[in-house]
Design brief:
Layout lengths: L2 H31 L3 H17 L1 H11 L1 H22 L3 H29 L5 H30 L1 H21 L1 H8 L7 E3 L5 E3 L10 H10 L2 H6 L1 H31 L4 H8 L1 H22 L4 H24 L6 H14 L7 H8 L4 H30 L2 H23 L2
Antiparallel strand pairs: 1-2
Family: Belongs to the major facilitator superfamily. Sodium/anion cotransporter (TC 2.A.1.14) family.
Membrane topology: Multi-pass membrane protein
Protein name: Major facilitator superfamily (MFS) profile domain-containing protein
Length: about 425
């Protein structure tokens, strides 16, 4: 995992920096434009409309043209759309459209990164590879939450979108500069062999000439995808359900935590953002433990499927328990509520060694498409859950009731998912 791999990790770092900036900026934006919680939820959830739309196209394009080109186009798209937000913020249709474009640009990145991992990382190192790449999500959250508040307070909320949009363009330029080195590394990869995934899907390498394929080649390639086999597989349906359940809690917390800490715990913008840093920091720590734990079990002969189930069970049971405790009115001091939320969200990072490795385990060739399928369904909670949270807040005027309703829903889903994992 060398320099090019670090660049792949920075893709997800950029994604979360750009996502987190709105969760912080939405507070002063709501005050300026007089938005209620329902409107703020609509603005934040509109990102996931584009995110859901681009999952399968992103996976298909990554499979045919390779992850690097898809990543570059995605970065340029979401960076320009992010910089456009302050210009259209006062015009709701324009703001929603810009957020959809950000979602489309970011939506192709997970599938592209998955394709790169599946083709270049051996099974015994896959958990750590996924942890490094998708761990950039937590690192991006930390930096976004740390730097967004002082930027907003000193330069205005508009500046945070201009600055982070510019950072995305700079990343793209740096990524392009490594092109020659990456092409040299590819020559050393053994991509001429075919392999069979743990569920029997045959995978084979794609020629380096695939980047020159035409639209007709793309259509023919999509016809070769075993769609029927995917949707007849219990493992694929389990991944779809797991992705849906995990995303509901993750996206809801990602979007609303700074507002929760600001309103419920009476923290100012900077304090709320800094407290919101604790869950992603905890995720970084847990990921560094979970990834080698999973890889070592596999290297010592433990069945790969069993390892993935163990990790995913931990990723579901832990946040279900801690989030339920944080939602019940026990008269706890604020720091204990923060500790419960931090612990639950941090332990959910075991999913990087569970669900997020399973796509590559099943099929190297179709890993990006499989992630596109599950991530499309996983984006639905971002559309529905984030907006629903705002609606519940406006209806109940109570964070306790809103959190309790969400946690009861998640607890039911998590428990049913755990039972599926154990089958």
């Amino acid at each position: 995992m060398g320099p090019s791999f670090a660049k792949r990790n920075s893709v997800n770092f950029d994604i979360l920096v750009l996502q987190v900036n709105l969760s912080v900026a939405i507070i002063p934006m709501s005050h300026q434009y007089g938005w209620n919680s329902s409107t703020a939820g609509l603005v934040q959830s509109s990102f996931f409309w584009g995110y859901a739309l681009s999952q399968l196209p992103g996976g298909s394009l990554a499979k045919l043209f390779g992850g690097r080109k898809v990543l570059e186009i995605g970065v340029v798209t979401w960076s320009l759309a992010t910089a456009l937000i302050p210009v259209v913020a006062g015009f709701m249709p324009g703001l929603v459209l810009s957020r959809i474009l950000v979602g489309i640009g970011e939506g192709v990145s997970p599938s592209a990164a998955t394709d790169l991992i599946a083709r270049s990382i051996p099974l015994q190192e896959r958990s750590r590879a996924v942890a490094v790449v998708f761990g950039g999500l937590s690192f991006g959250s930390v930096l976004g939450l740390l730097f967004a508040p002082p930027i907003i307070q000193n330069l205005g909320w508009e500046s945070v979108f201009y600055i982070f949009g510019l950072l995305g363009i700079i990343w793209c330029i740096g990524f392009e500069s490594l092109k020659g080195k990456q092409l040299g590394n590819k020559k050393g990869l053994n991509l001429g062999q075919s392999s069979t995934g743990s569920n029997g899907f045959v995978s084979s390498a794609v020629s380096s000439e695939s980047s020159d394929s035409s639209l007709e080649d793309l259509q023919n390639s999509l016809k070769d995808v075993p769609w029927g086999a995917f949707f007849k597989s219990k493992a694929v349906w389990a991944m779809i359900y797991a992705h849906f359940c995990g995303s509901w809690g993750h996206y809801t917390c990602l979007s609303w935590l700074p507002t929760f800490f600001s309103e419920e715990l009476n923290l100012n913008l900077t304090e709320a953002a800094w407290v919101s840093v604790l869950p992603p920091l905890g995720s970084i720590v847990i990921t560094s433990i979970a990834a080698p734990f999973a890889d070592n079990l596999i290297a010592n002969g433990v069945d790969t499927t069993k390892v993935r189930k163990i990790c995913q069970t931990i990723a579901f049971v832990s946040p279900a328990i801690f989030m339920m405790l944080s939602s019940v009115d026990l008269g706890l001091p604020p720091w204990e509520i923060v500790a419960f939320l931090t612990s639950g969200l941090a332990l959910s990072s075991f999913a990087f060694s569970g669900l997020y490795c399973t796509h590559q385990d099943i099929s190297r060739e179709y890993a990006s498409i499989l992630l596109g399928i599950t991530n499309t369904v996983g984006a639905v909670p971002g559309i529905v859950g984030v907006a629903l949270t705002g609606y519940l807040l406006d209806s109940t005027h109570s964070w306790n009731i809103t959190l309790r309703a969400i946690c009861l829903l998640l607890l039911n889903w998590y428990c049913s998912m755990v039972s599926i994992c154990q089958q």
